[in-house]
C-alpha cells in the first residue's frame, strides 16, 4: 500500500494521491473540506448516513464538507488509485469575493455527487499527473491549480457551485433522524454536536429530552442491538460486524456483547 500527498498547512489546499494494492481498504472519515476526486483504477464504495454509493475507474466525484463517511476501496486486479484535491475555505472565500460568487441560501444536498465528464475536467486532471508522487508542487502553484478547479466545477454544475460558496456551519438538524442514520460512526460527541448544529451542552440536553438516556449509553445499546441482528439473523461474522458498527476493537465488542446478552458473539 502507498499513499502520498504534498505537505501543506491545513488552511491550504491539498493534493493527495492514493495507491492501494492487495487487500481492500476499509475505514471511516470525517470530510472536513470539500473534496474533488478522480478514480484512476479500482472502485470505491461510500456510505453517507445509510445511503450507499458505488464509483468506478474514470469517475469524477465531489464530496461536500462537514459530513461523516464510511468507505471500502476495492483494489481488484489493478489496485485502487485516485487523485484528490481538498479545497480549503480560504481559497473559496478569495474566489467568492473576486468573482462575486454567492450561494442561494442554505442548501441541503447529497453528500457526494458524480460529476459529468467534460473536456475541462479531463484536461485539468491531466495537468496534475506530472506532480504526483513528488514534492515539486509548491503552495503557490497548488493554490492556482485549486482556483482553476473551483471555477471549472462552478461552471460545470450549479449544485456544486452553490455548495462551494456556502460558508456557514451546519444548521440545526433533526437530531433523531441524524443519529439513527449515523450511530455506526466512531466519532466523539463533539463531532456529533457540530454536525447537528449544536454546542456540546446543547446536544446533550436535546439528546436527553429526546431519548431519555445519555448519548454514550444510547450509542452502545443501538450498536449492540444492530450487532445481534446482523450476527443471529443475517449470519454475519462478528469480526466484520464490530468494525461496521463503530467499536474500537474486537475485545471491547465481545465484552460489551456478552455483558448485554449473556453470551459471546458467534454466528454458529
TrEMBL record:
Statement: the UniProt record of this protein carries the keyword Transcription: yes
PROSITE patterns: HTH_ARAC_FAMILY_2
Coiled coil stretches, renumbered: none
Organism, scientific name: Pedobacter rhizosphaerae
Signal peptide: none
Recorded GO MF terms: DNA-binding transcription factor activity; sequence-specific DNA binding
Name of the protein in its database record: Transcriptional regulator, AraC family
UniProt entry tagged with the keyword Lipid metabolism: no
Database matches in InterPro entries: AraC_XylS_family_regulators (IPR050204), ExsA-like_N (IPR054015), Homeodomain-like_sf (IPR009057), HTH_AraC (IPR018060), RmlC_Cupin_sf (IPR011051)
All copies of domain HTH araC/xylS-type, residue ranges: 173-268
Keywords: DNA-binding, Transcription, Transcription regulation
SMART domains with a match to the protein in the record: HTH_ARAC
Entries under Pfam families matching the protein: ExsA_N, HTH_18
Amino acid at each position: 500500500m502507498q499513499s502520498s500527498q504534498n505537505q501543506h498547512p491545513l488552511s491550504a489546499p491539498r493534493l493527495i494521491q492514493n495507491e492501494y494494492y492487495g487487500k481492500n481498504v476499509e475505514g471511516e472519515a470525517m470530510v472536513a473540506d470539500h473534496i474533488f476526486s478522480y478514480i484512476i483504477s479500482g472502485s470505491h464504495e461510500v456510505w453517507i448516513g445509510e445511503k450507499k454509493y458505488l464509483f468506478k475507474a474514470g469517475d469524477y466525484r465531489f464530496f461536500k464538507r462537514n459530513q461523516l463517511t464510511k468507505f471500502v476501496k476495492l483494489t481488484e486486479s489493478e489496485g485502487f488509485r485516485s487523485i484528490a484535491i481538498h479545497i480549503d475555505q480560504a481559497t473559496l472565500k478569495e474566489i467568492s469575493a473576486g468573482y462575486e460568487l454567492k450561494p442561494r441560501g442554505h442548501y441541503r444536498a447529497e453528500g457526494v455527487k458524480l460529476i459529468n465528464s467534460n473536456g475541462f475536467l479531463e484536461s485539468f486532471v491531466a495537468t496534475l499527473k506530472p506532480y504526483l508522487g513528488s514534492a515539486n508542487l509548491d503552495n503557490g502553484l497548488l493554490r492556482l491549480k485549486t482556483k482553476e478547479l473551483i471555477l471549472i466545477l462552478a461552471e460545470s454544475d450549479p449544485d456544486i457551485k452553490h455548495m462551494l460558496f456556502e460558508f456557514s456551519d451546519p444548521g440545526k438538524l433533526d437530531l433523531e433522524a441524524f443519529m439513527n442514520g449515523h450511530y455506526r460512526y466512531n466519532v466523539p460527541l463533539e463531532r456529533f454536536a457540530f454536525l447537528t448544529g449544536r454546542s456540546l451542552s446543547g446536544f446533550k440536553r436535546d439528546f436527553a429530552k429526546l431519548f431519555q438516556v445519555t448519548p454514550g449509553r444510547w450509542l452502545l445499546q443501538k450498536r449492540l442491538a444492530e450487532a445481534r441482528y446482523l450476527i443471529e439473523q443475517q449470519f454475519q461474522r462478528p469480526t466484520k460486524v464490530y468494525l461496521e458498527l463503530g467499536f474500537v476493537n474486537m475485545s471491547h465488542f465481545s465484552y460489551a456483547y456478552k455483558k448485554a446478552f449473556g453470551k459471546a458473539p458467534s454466528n454458529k
